[in-house]
Amino acid sequence: MVNPTRRHFILWDRPLLTQAAVWLADSWTGGAPLDLSRVLVVVPTRQSGRRLREALAEHAAARGQATFPPRVVTPETFLTFEATDGTASRLESLLAWTGVLCDIDAAEFGDVFPAGSQAGNAAGALRLAQEFMRLQSLLAEGGLRFADVAAQVGSDFPDTARWRQLATLEELFDDALLAHELRDAQAAKIAAARSAAVAERYDRVVLLGTPDPLPLALEALAAHASAQPIEVVIFAPITESENFDEWGRPLAAAWEHRQLGLDEFERRVHLCADPAAQAERAAALARGYGEPDGLLALGVADAEVLPLLESGLARAGVAAFNPEGRPRRSDQLYHLLATLAAIAREPAFDAVEALARCPDFLAWLHARLGAGFSSARFLSELDDLRAEHLPATLAEARRHTGSPALALVAELRDMLTGGEFPANAAAALGEIFAARQLDLAREADAQLHESAGAWTEVLRECAAARARFPGPDDAGWWELALRLFGDGARTEEKPAGALELQGWLELLFEDAPHLAVAGFNDGSVPDAVVGDAFLPESLRARLGLKTNAARFARDAYLLQAIAASRARLDLLFGKTSAVGDPLRPSRLLLQCADAELPTRIEFLFAAPELAAPNPPWTRAWPLVPRRAPPPAKVAVTALKAWLACPFRFYLRTVLRMEAVDPAKSELDALDFGTLCHAALEAMGREVALRDCTDAAVLREFLLGELAQQVRARFGDNLTLPLVIQVESARQRLTHVAEVQARERAAGWVIADVEKKFAVEIAGLVVSGKIDRIDRHAETGAVRLLDYKTSDSPVTPASAHLRAPRCDETPPEWSVVVVDGKARVWADLQLPLYRHALAAELGGDVECGYFNLPKAVGDTGLALWDKFTEELQASALRAATGLCAAIRAGEFWPPGAHVDEERDEFAALFHRRVEDSVNFGGAAP
Amino acid sequence: MRPLRHEMILASAGSGKTFALTDRFVALLARGAKPERIVALTFTRKAAGEFFDEILKKLADAAREADAAGRLAGRIGAPQLGSGDFLAMLRRVTDAMHRLRLGTLDSFFAQVVRAFPLELGLTGDFEILQEHAARLERQRVLRRMFARAGGLAPAQQEFIEAFKRATFGREEKRLGAQLDGFLDDYQETFLAAPSVELWGNPARIWPDGCAWLEPQGRLADAVAALVASLAGRDLSDGQRRRWGDFFAALPEWAPGMELPKPLEYVLKNALAVWPALQAGRAEMTVERKKLVLAPDECAALARIVTEVVGAELRRRLETTRGIFAVLCGYEAVYHDAVRRTGKLTFADVQRLLAPAAGAPLLAQQSDDCEGRLMIDYRLDAEIDHWLLDEFQDTSFGQWSVLRNLIDEAVQDAEGRRSFFCVGDVKQAVYAWREGDPQLFRKIFNHYNAAAPGAIIERPLVESWRSGPPLIEMVNTVFGARETLARLFPGEASAAWNRVWLAHTTAVPERGGQAALLHADDEAGCWAVALRLLREIRPLERGLTCAVLVRRNDTATALADFLRREGGLPAVAESDLHVCIDNPLGAALLALVQAAAHPGDTLAWEHLRMMPLGAVLAAEELSFPERLTERVLEQIHAEGFERTAEWWLAKLEPRLAVDDVFSRVRARQFAAAAGLFDATGSRDAAEFSAFMARHTVRDAESAAVVRVMTIHKAKGLGFDVVLLPDLEGNTLEERRKGLAVQRAADRAVEWVLDLPPGLFREQDAVLAAHVGAARAAACYENLSLLYVAMTRAIRGMYLIAKPAGKSASANYPRMLADTLGGERRPVRVGALELPGAWTAGDPDWYAALTRAEPVSEETDARAIAPVAGLEHAPRRQARRPSEEKTGVLAAAQLFALEGGGAADFGTAVHARFAEVEWGSADEVARLAATWADGGPAATEALVCLRAAALADVWTRPAGAARAEVWRERAFEIVLDGAWVTGVFDRVVVARDAAGRAVRATVWDFKTDRVETVEDIAAAVARHAGQLNLYRRVAAVLGGLDANGVVCELVFTRLRRCAAVPEAGAR
Ligand code: SF4
């Protein structure tokens, strides 16, 4: 057979690009357009194709002309541009595979599924399907399908039986497609490569600077070469001709031990601690050039470095551009779609909350509800709903509000679930964007335009596939469609002057005289595959697929060609990855004379330079809270807060600072108390129970009340935490019933509940509600009770008085001596109850707590024994001092003993509270 | 060459563990082993990296210098080798770099699992869950478990029941928090012992039965009997009160509750004389007086005590099973929702391979044996040699995965394969992570029992790190066998003494000082540390220095103290919460919260308190409505990182000029936001949670005092080490949590929620368990101090409280009893400090001064740009057809049917491209070929026949020759931009000489254009594009621009419209 190729060599003493353009245009005289339209050029990547066409245009422009460009393709696109109708889309293949995997009896394929079927659930089948498709596409690079592997592995390979069964599975897959007159895309690609139809339209076929073409592409090219040999352009001096095969591929044997010429090694190779250090170094290089574009080019061999490099360059003021584009997962539209998918799957309240925070959705609400609608109010309303009712679903939430916005969510949900996917999805989006006009001159609008186009394409693909394959349910379809969309990339035009961040394989076509490559680590360059579940190295070698040795040869050649063809090449490599994995420099850096190797090792494996120590902690600024006038009225319960910390009292009571807990999923202590209180209040008000001493009756009543409260507030379908919490409340109330029965039997009658009062002390109105007032049927004695639902029982004395701390001087009014020991008032609640009702009830009144703790055995009364009039007087004095302080605006210094774990304001403070806040000056 | 044996090395601290391991690697190479056939595994990624570097450097040195080569050759028992041989080995290693298996156990296991997904029950590749992702998954799983639709599902009912059992009598209000706690505390235990059989099962705990659990008859009878009997006794008032309180408290108590004092009192005293009580003759102390109990009183009391203890035990058993059931319920959902979808933790990976869990055996040969994973084929790895590092930290689980492979190596008959491990059982400080110091001995015995002498053991006791005074201190403390035996009686000291060997130093000339100093409290200890640092000034002398503490937060606080009070560059090598530990980060988080939750008045008011408030005012964003819309828009359009950067830029001018710290934090915040963006989420609450948890370890930096935990210091050495955090807690404190009893083979035997001390002391099984657990804890604490005390190279200063009279077996006591408790001043340079012991030279550092710093690498030069380079210009790319302007309705973008329009347009264009000239014959021919061409063909045909469009298809009149370009791509450099496009149809008229005389550019528009106004609008819209085409056609045709006519062809209306030349209108 005649040699299918004719090789040409282009010297690597200058960049390839312009030389290639000149070479392609060699017979052009310049009088007419440079017409290469009957030339097919195969280049390694899309980007190199772009660069080539640009160089040709430049070449023509130098003589005032333009080009009719050649057809420029990559080996992959070259194989697929003839794809015909009847080829299954990716989605269709995925569905066909999934169907096959769900239908088979895994036991019959014991060599593929030794651990039994993993396709048990839909997600598993889908993942397996993807795995098989990955495998098919890998094999197709060499023109192989599963059956070919089964035929070629031979019995000396351990996996022969498995491949045979895989081949059977692939047949089933083919049949599944065939049933819909479809054909697997990889199979189609292989067939197309073998049917010579492409080259006829071209006078010349050129394989240009492509050291690593797919074997299948070569097969196709060879088929076309019958008429005319393929011209293979190798970027290397002709003296190197022995080191390449007929297709211009570097020969593994020739490059394996080849010494690579790298000038000024120790000045041009840079060891950096981590990706951030690499990014910094690269940015410093770029900054050195005023306008780096064209002079300096950046290559990124390790994708992990890329995002850091982008932000590093941005910080350094260098505009950078990633020609690979951005994943659609970062599109604004993607996130809207994801929340819509969640709503469509299940109308859960948290899905509603997520949707409500999508700007496009809010814009729709605006459009539908008119100027009266406020996003902020709507979001607050949702937060309130959660705080108050913990709704699990949209429907539950709507029981508590007539919010028109939520009604619209419901309408949208109906739209999303009515009919079939994707029509319902398209309709819903049409509705959301119904009122929007896009001005394509605006970047955001242009982006939406572009995203929407891509999404709609996905939906069309889904519609087509769904017509053939039933596929999953609507939720599954959403997921598939989202994944297809998210996996896509959004490419943009390069902004003028921006520095391109190119992958390693692009660099052969880069013509900047100064090139820097970051991420020059082993595993990235040379690229190597280790430990594949299906195609280990030994099998890849057997099948003629790309081996690690071939990858090495390619990358060694690339480095040599790149280094030789420009003024300067800098190589940056990291010592560790972003997450701290140790990295090694590229092996290519060790392709030197043996004598030099130890020196290189010493240089490349030295410890990276240590960073300068971080600066000591400093405070960016102190907080300066606004000064609001002191309150004229406070709740009695707030006094305790002042006593604990006047400043936090100010924040909470005066500035009314209150946090929203977006993750609230169960009752908090307050909710829990409120629920119990409500039942207890009802019991107190129930005249029929006044004299009841039957614990069972009381229990029934309390539990009934509780159930009613719970239903009203949280609906019927309580989430598990609520079920358990309500159960806890039931237990506590059950024990209350027993205690209550005993107390009544002992003569105590409930005289009043939730009794309101307000007293003025030192110019401050203190108000409150007394949970319960008992009067003894015989003695007429009175006691004031406060229900406590905290987890452990408390006694009034310990809650109201505390020991002074060694580092404090409490205000004189707050100190009292009890049993010869100094005590400080920590709360004034019960004494103030007594004070407030003194006129009404007289002086001799007991007070205390009715505890409903978590250890229900401890349920019961904790009266303040040893409460004396002296204490009462002291409490009143303390109250006077305290109220005067509040009226005088004394909210500083902060209390020193607030538990940070429980401090709701902890986020405001860094290190000491006193230093965090600047609370100087007098109150207004 | 000496053949290599299987070897286990017991290396003391500083004796060159890595050195031994790397020597072994070289020794294997020297004997012809292929580097890729050697597996070397360690625990941390850092150690793995260093290990590799060490091998290369060792070989490089030997390759370069004959002396080094000679030494290395000697050490590896191959004296004939020279530099050339080592160079060849170096080449072999570097050539195989990508195939080497030097790494962590975790990554090795992950590689194996990756190669055998289907064999191990996975459906393909998997991702390793990082901490944040794992938390999110947990929340997701919990939400799924908690959700309700209609009635409670049976599984949920079961779960509630289990939960109640698990929290008996102390039911909790907060399920979420409680469950989170359960999972944190117990999940690993559950996964290690996932069988209900093992949890709270009395038959496993007490295989011989448990007397406490035997039925006792009616408690009331015993109580009544005892009450009656005691009533007749002559008791003191105090005694009577004790008994009275006891009988009163008894019915109040329920198992699981804390014991009421009166109950505890009698119970304790009764248990103190338990055997006698059972024997029926007990003398029991009540109220400081002996009370002789009669036989029936003994019997009654014994019954009561047994009943109480039994009830408590039963409850604990029940609780334990409840905890199991709760975890089981969670796990079932988790497994389905997380692991099955390919998200695994490293622990999951290891468990997948655990043979106990039914995984196939790891093996190298396929052999005959079914169910083996052939890692040599799939991993392209035929492993001949095993090197394991830090063996004391290996867990039973890890070992059971490796065992099969290593068995094969150890038993290899031909001796081609080998096993080597190195560890220091005195540095076993990872027992809480399942590291198992006993494994070393067990394995050694196991192999040697099968084949005596199979493995040799080699101790390394010579320290290459510490000088003589330091070694003296270490030997004095840890070699004090009797003292240790007295302080920590039983297995703790016995285990230690068994493994202890006196240390020696390999660097006898290395000067230095070791000392025990005293201070009265923590503040005092810190102050002494500061004084020492000020005196020694290690950094100025070029010495490395570390301050070791026990906990991370102590490290942070102490580093702060040293910086603040001492002005020292101290760095806490703990994980810093960089996003929330400063006002700037807090500001940004408040901003996000305020925007996403406008009702959060805390966040809002917070914003107003700081400079961000002024920024908001300047940007007119002080109202919730505005802020919400702006920030949500930013977040959704650009992600959190860019949003954060935008706001940080706004805040930057408000920072003090010299506030470097806040600027560093700003960068860290943005970087963390970038990491969050990578998760793909745009959820504000998730963002805040992520940021709050995000930590950064201060980069290893030059010339700082490093403050870190002892655990982190393991494996490191420093010139000066300070230990100011030796607490006074007893070393024998058992770790909190469930009791997990392990069998001799380290498999879990039983799990129990242990009852409080009183209840278990009289039970042999539980007491034995607790005793062993205490001994293990004590051993671990001894290890910890050993690790700490062996980090120093020259100066080692322990700073502890004086032991005083406390009898607690704690560090101060141990140091006092070993080094000497007598107080005496210790001199360190110019300081005289209270202390008790010292050795070495108090002025050791005086002569040390820092060498002149090496002149800064001229980094600037290395990265300076090259001047005067020639380069091709880079053009802006333009595509006239894609230059979109105008306004359109967004809704139409989502119309599914619209897709046809583009396809239709393409199809019509394709038909037109087939037409050269539209002669009648040609039209007829085309009509025939397009017969089944659908609407596009029909449309094309109508256009061909339309009189109004005749010009498009007709040869230009008067031209000598004419040429048509159809669907013709072009590229051109125009106005400095690189323009690429495609002409639909261009007709060039030429004269007889072939020169172009004029040209017409026809551009087909197939979209819906209905009216004259539409046409005008379309002309306006496409004017830019067509004028560009005009210029291009002019260049390509060699014409003036005014020689080119541009026409839009509207196929639906069958109308043409000329596009006037730019500026001509
Ligand atoms: S906690 Fe308070 S009372 Fe206790 S020692 Fe510290 S300052 Fe004194």
Kindly list the characteristics that best describe this protein.
heterodimer; A: 924 residues; alpha/beta; six-stranded parallel beta sheet; 34 helices; 25 strands; 13% strand; elongated; B: 1065 residues; 39 helices; globular; binds iron/sulfur cluster
Question: What's the gist of this structure?
Answer:
The complex is a heterodimer of chains A (924) and B (1065). Chain A has 924 residues and is an alpha/beta fold.
**What topology, given as strand order, has the largest sheet of chain B?**
17-20-16-21-24-15-26-25
The amount of beta strand of chain B, in percent, is: 15-25%
Instruction: List bound small molecules.
Output: iron/sulfur cluster
Count every helix of chain A, treating DSSP H or I runs of 4 or more residues as helices: 34
E-strand count of chain A: 25
Q: Could you explain the architecture of this structure?
A:
With 924 residues, chain A is an alpha/beta fold. Helices cover 45% and strands 13% of the residues of chain A. The termini of chain A are far apart. In chain A, 47% of the residues are buried. The mean pLDDT of chain A is 90. By secondary structure, chain B is of the alpha/beta class. In chain B, the strands form nine sheets. Chain B has an eight-stranded mixed beta sheet with strand order 17-20-16-21-24-15-26-25, with helices on both faces. The N and C termini of chain B lie far apart (96 Å). At the A-B interface, helix 2, strand 4, helix 5, helix 12 and helix 13 of A face helix 2, helix 4, helix 5, helix 6 and helix 7 of B. Strand 12 of chain A pairs antiparallel with strand 28 (887-889) of chain B. The complex binds iron/sulfur cluster. Iron/sulfur cluster is lined by residues 805-807, 897 of chain A.
